[in-house]
Amino acid sequence: MEWQQILYFRKVAQTQHITRSAELLNVSQPALSRAIARLEEELNTPLFERKGRNIVLNQYGELFLKRVERAIQEIEEGKQEIQDLINPDHGKIQIAFLHSLGIEVVPEFIRSFRLQYPQVSFHLHQASMDQIVEQLKTGLIDIALFSMLEPIDEVHWEPLITEELFLIVSKTHPLANRTQIELKEIANEPFISFKQGYGLRTLTDTLCKQAGFTPAITFEGEEIATIAGLVAVKLGVSLVPDVNVLDKSKVSLLRVLDPGCERTIGLAWKEKRYLSPVARRFISFVKEHYI
After folding, report:
1. Of the candidates 273, 282, 272, 269, the residue with the CA atom closest to the CA atom of residue 91
2. Where are the beta strands (DSSP E) in 77-154?
3. Last residue of a domain, one of 82, 115, 150
4. HSE-up of 98 (CA within 13 Å, CB side)?
5. Cα–Cα distance between 200 and 177 in angstroms, integer?
6. pLDDT tens over the chain, length 291 residues
7. Of 82, 107, 140, which marks where a domain is finished?
8. Strand positions, DSSP E, 171-250
9. Which CA distances in Å does 284 have to 113, 127, 154?
10. Which residue from 22, 148, 149, 166 has the fewest beta carbons nearer than 10 Å?
11. How many domains are there within the chain?
């Protein structure tokens, strides 16, 4: 069994099309077909079934693909380990974080780190919490920053910073002149929240439940700036951290007395997965400077 056959099999499994796979691999279609046929002959079983113009994995192909993906990841990590040993001060760190952390938190972490290690590069991913967890588990990213409300299988998480969440209302809202409030007081207010799967949405729903009500959500967004813009024109109220994108000439911030409204942001990485020296250095740096 040749490594080239393995890569060819993986590409065909991804595209489910011999001609398209041959184009992507820059090989002829007959050569690709022969390679797959030899692989199936060596395994003594077909791996694909034809469906019209496409081919799909059968049960044996699906089983083999899982092993192939694992083998490729092991080899890629081995190559990366060697490169890291050759030059540990260089390299790239893959980081995913919540949209709200891209305003101040993550830029400050990276700015401070690169003052000491200017040759390190970063590949940044902004996503919902559900997406970030999936990226961690599949190995797409090295490190994540998010708020974890309960333990997640395969993910190691350490608390880092705690942010207070404030109720924001329009400057023309009857509550705008208040400085503090109990969350139950806005039980009948239209609520502007984040989409399902976002950390602040999960936390908001939890806090409102603790206050004895389910928020009447009228709009869902992804960015704090968008949420605040909708609040500013009196379309509802929301719970957000105090970040610099909030236009305080248009919205008022009220401290929530009960229940205590805050979120803890932490660093996370996949348990038992190889982390490069530069990724470990970044984790140590952030913990040393910000905890």
Report:
1. 282
2. 91-97, 120-126, 143-146
3. 82
4. 28
5. 25
6. 888 999 999 999 999 999 999 999 999 999 999 999 999 999 999 999 988 778 899 999 999 999 999 999 889 888 877 877 657 777 889 999 988 888 888 999 999 999 999 989 899 999 888 899 999 998 899 999 999 888 999 999 999 999 999 999 999 999 999 999 999 999 999 999 999 888 899 999 999 999 999 999 999 998 899 999 999 999 999 999 999 889 999 999 999 999 999 999 999 999 988 888 889 999 999 999 877
7. 82
8. 180-182, 190-194, 216-221, 238-241
9. 11, 24, 20
10. 149
11. 3
Report the CATH number at residue 204. 3.40.190.10
Q: What is the DSSP letter of 142?
A: S
Does the CA dihedral 48-16-68-152 come out positive or negative? Answer: negative
Q: 213: closest CA among 237, 189, 229?
A: 189
Tokens of 191: 């609520």
Residue among 95, 96, 109, 154 at smallest CA distance from 287: 109
Which structural domain range is residue 196 located in? 161-263
Say which DSSP state 183 is in.
Answer: G
